[in-house]
């Protein structure tokens, strides 16, 4: 509905409804509809029956093993949110191999296929849907017992909507976010590439809120339920929620070692690392982050990875861990051009 259409009807009373909106979005809606001093009614955001937990991993393989074992041992219907079509397909296939009925769901499927997955899930004929963000709009299945995320969310708004699909019957439901630290650097890279300055700024705001949420518990203890409520402009009266890992500690299954007999996809191992004489051993975690960053940049620029940066330079960066632009320029393989184009992103990766 446009302001012009409202005017053409002689400005009747206007009611705007939305499922989830933080204060800035509410303001934006009122502004776009040219509402003058609107009465705003906001429902509660606290969902005390959702048990929230977050866990950060240094590498993808461990994260994926953990995710697979978590889903296998879960009970009842659930949704796993992943970032890419490929990950959705692979995880669904691994789950089926492990005896869990699962379907992938993503925008690469036809409308008919997507409808079939949705119907099968709603009817209870398939226990798990592995989905990209495309799944869940209009899904009202009250008995979803868990929602897991395999990536840090792009925003709290999106995360809240997705976990909000769990436990609608009021019974307890588990919402676990498993993420890899290197991925937030990738997200930062893509935000930096956004052309429109306002859009980019909004991207950064969402990024910082979401990163703070994912990192809570690592030094900055701040109840996750409270963070969500505060994000939507609500201040809870309680001090601890009793249902998040910051308040009550990590669930046992997250603390336990992953032991798996089921087949797990492992990425092909990379060539042995050659460390130049006189350099400290590279930081493996940082090297993995740099590799992930490099492949994202290469993919986006449609060039081979070594054009972005060769292996020796990545290893040198992971060994020397430059902390400033000056130090960065001292790393073998980093010329003026590379320092200018990638300097900020590399330094952000080193800072972690
Ligand atoms: Zn809490």
Task: Write a brief caption for the model.
The chain has helices at 3-8, 23-32, 60-73, 85-97, 111-122, 156-163, 181-192, 197-215, 224-231, 245-248, 252-255, 284-301, 305-308, 311-320, 325-329, 336-351; strands at residues 50-57, 78-81, 102-105, 128-131, 146-149, 173-180.
Count of runs of 4 or more consecutive helical residues = 16
The overall pLDDT average reads: 83
Cα Rg: 23 Å
CATH architecture of the largest domain: 3-Layer(aba) Sandwich
CATH class label of the largest domain: Alpha Beta
What is the CATH topology descriptor of the largest domain?
Rossmann fold
Structure description:
By secondary structure, this protein is an alpha/beta fold. It has three domains: 3-32, no CATH class; 50-254, Rossmann fold, CATH 3.40.50; 284-351, Orthogonal Bundle (DNA polymerase, domain 1). The protein contains 16 helices and six strands. Strands 1-6-5-2-4-3 form a six-stranded parallel beta sheet, with helices on both faces. Helix 7 (181-192) packs antiparallel against helix 8 and helix 7 runs parallel beside helix 12 (284-301). The protein binds zinc ion. Zinc ion binds at residues 223-225, 240-241, 244, 246-247.
